[in-house]
Amino acid sequence: MKNLKRISIALVGLISVVSLATVSNMYLGGEFDTPAPPQAVTTPVPAPAVTQDPTVGAYMQELGLDYSQLNLIYGVNPAIPAGEASYTYPNTIYLTDRITGNEIYTALSHEYIHYVQNVTDKVAAESFYPYMDELMNSNKWLYDRMSDYRTNKLCTENCLRLQAEVQAVACTELPDTRLRADFAAFCRKHLPNRSNLL
Questions:
Q1: pTM to 2 decimals?
Q2: Is residue 18 included in any domain, yes or no?
Q3: Is 143 exposed, middle or buried (0-12, 13-18, 19+ CB in 10 A)?
Q4: Which pLDDT tens digit goes with each residue over 67-103?
Q5: Residue 34 lies in a domain
Q6: How high is the pLDDT of residue 74?
Q7: N or C: which terminus of the chain carries fewer CB neighbours within 10 A?
């Protein structure tokens, strides 16, 4: 009787091992094994190549701006042939020889703010747009400066929003004392040598 019990236990153990091996085989290379999907080879995506005119790059460096991801073109923007300096989404700034002297720094800083608004700090820039309306309406010089934008003379179908233009002008042409403290800090963050423009 004792031997029969031992044989039964041994048989149950053997059946369990065989069943487990069969099930394992089914899922680990047997008939129910599903081939793993092919693994995609991932390679790092390189940063987009940029074209940088050395003259414009030197101006940007003097301004203390991060221009590593910007195309810097010394020439006319085909989309805005009359412009002296312009920004084209997502990462191109044009500068023409129609602008000289210290105006170069103001113009490049202005266009850099448009790059900030569209690419590098869009949420923060847009958070100040309501203040841009308030600032323009409370500052006669700025209000007059924006007349062509307010009357849509300079706007086309793809015109920048008025607030974006006010923001670029305010950051590059108004001193901190004329700006709300948090907005002045935003301007200094993106234009570290801003005080040299004024």
A1: 0.73
A2: no
A3: middle
A4: 999 999 999 999 888 889 999 999 999 999 999 999 9
A5: no
A6: 96
A7: N
CA nearest to 52, candidates 73, 23, 32, 69: 73
Average pLDDT score over residue span 132-142: 94
Backbone angles phi, psi at 194, to 5 degrees: -55, -40
Q: Closest by alpha carbon to 129, among 186, 175, 191?
A: 186
Choose among 90, 155, 94, 93: nearest CA to 118: 90
| Residue 57: Cβ within 10 Å count | 15
For 157, the 3-state DSSP assignment is: coil
Please tell me the total count of domains within the chain: 1
pLDDT at 26: 39
Residue 71 counted as domain residue: yes
SS3 48: coil
Place of tokens 């940063």: 47
Percentages helix, strand, coil for the chain, rounded to the nearest 5?
A: 55, 5, 40
- Write out the H or E segment, with its range, that includes residue 27: helix 2-27
Domain membership of residue 168 as a residue range: 54-196
Q: Kindly state whether residue 113 falls inside one of the protein's structural domains.
A: yes
DSSP one-letter string for 72-86: EEES--TTSTT-SEE
